[in-house]
Amino acid sequence: MTALDLFKALSDETRLRSLMLIKAEEELCVCELMQALQESQPKVSRHLAQLRKTGLLLDKRQGQWIFYRINPNLPAWALKVIDETCSANGELIEQNLAHLKSMGDRPDRVRSCCE
Question: Whole domain around residue 95: which residue ranges?
Answer without folding.
Answer: 3-103
